[in-house]
Backbone:
């Protein structure tokens, strides 16, 4: 089997937590959490976890039979993409994009068709560009909200227009909402149980700080959920008992964990704005929330040599933009402690001055 290499994940696993000043982080650090006694015998014949799915449904206003609990949003994205596409399909994928999106299309034998999200448009989704892409034969659309890597949000009218375009062309939309709960205000989802054109995946990873727990879910109509369950039978069979135990405990106090993550994001944003206040050598589009900024370095077409030098000389890691299809930018994560973040950004400033020169 020809498996395309997920280049960013290979690179991230090599460098994650390997440097003192880690600007790669895209989620908050895990919180203090009590020990979980997880039974080793799962509920017999259970798909997902009915109790967790009921509580997720209540939290996001989705019927429980439209929710499937799975070990992580990455698996959720895998399931939805595989269930909704066939080899040879043309799949419309936003760009810049988290590499997993076009990677899954290639893995399943499809053709990834770019849907540009342009900085001059604030990286928002453009229904006219989607119309053109689907008119050429697209059957599926893969997008994110908040957008990874920029943090830009898709507003209600924007998503409604995207839904309408997809519906006219008989296409479906898979929306990754793993960063969605970084938005201020009550939690929400774009999934609607009365409109099957758009399905979602998410997890308790980014703002909640439970990345190592791999606790995720999909929201999809019951027939699509059932197809995903059959695919899970070939993959994980069941969610691991420790994962379900952590998710049950997390859901008893989810708002507190989210509030902690929002405070960390606000703290990082304050430090970042101090750093950029007097700079004229970078630019970025304002995000709707989150811990990352997708930064362009003026006059620098390829940031990877700068990122390599920064790691080797300053023990500071940023994500080169080539992993998102835009080599002239870097993704900067703001989730580390303020003093470390200030020094990390000072190190980045040194690198920018050197490489622009």
Residues:
């Amino acid at each position: 089997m020809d498996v395309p290499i997920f280049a960013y994940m290979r690179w991230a696993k090599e460098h994650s937590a390997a440097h003192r000043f880690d600007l790669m982080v895209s989620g908050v650090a895990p919180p203090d959490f009590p020990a979980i006694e997880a039974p080793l015998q799962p509920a017999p014949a259970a798909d997902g976890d009915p109790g967790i799915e009921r509580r997720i449904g209540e939290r996001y206003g989705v019927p429980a039979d439209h929710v499937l609990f799975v070990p992580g949003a990455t698996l959720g994205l895998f399931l939805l993409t595989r269930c909704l596409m066939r080899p040879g399909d043309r799949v419309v994928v936003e760009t810049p994009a988290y590499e997993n999106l076009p990677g899954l299309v290639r893995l399943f034998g499809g053709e990834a068709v770019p849907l540009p999200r342009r900085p001059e448009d604030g990286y928002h989704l453009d229904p006219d560009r989607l119309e053109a892409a689907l008119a050429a034969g697209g059957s599926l659309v893969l997008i994110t909200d908040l957008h990874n890597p920029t943090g830009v949000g898709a507003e209600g009218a924007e998503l409604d227009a995207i839904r309408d375009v997809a519906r006219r062309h008989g296409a479906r939309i898979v929306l990754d909402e793993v960063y969605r709960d970084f938005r201020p205000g009550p939690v929400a989802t774009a999934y609607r149980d009365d409109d099957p054109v758009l399905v979602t995946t998410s997890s308790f990873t980014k703002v909640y700080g439970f990345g190592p727990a791999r606790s995720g879910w999909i929201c999809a109509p019951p027939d699509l959920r059932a197809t995903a369950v059959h695919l899970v039978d070939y993959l994980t069979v069941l969610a691991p008992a420790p994962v379900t135990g952590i998710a049950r405990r997390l859901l008893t106090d989810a708002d507190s964990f989210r509030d902690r993550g929002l405070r960390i994001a606000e703290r990082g944003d304050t430090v970042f704005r101090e750093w950029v206040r007097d700079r004229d050598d970078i630019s970025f589009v304002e995000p709707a929330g989150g811990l990352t900024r997708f930064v362009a370095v003026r006059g620098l077409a390829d940031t990877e040599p700068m990122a390599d030098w920064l790691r080797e000389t300053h023990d500071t890691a940023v994500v080169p933009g080539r992993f998102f299809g835009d080599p002239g930018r870097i993704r900067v994560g703001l989730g580390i402690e303020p003093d470390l973040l200030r020094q990390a950004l000072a190190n980045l400033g040194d690198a920018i001055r050197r490489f622009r020169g």
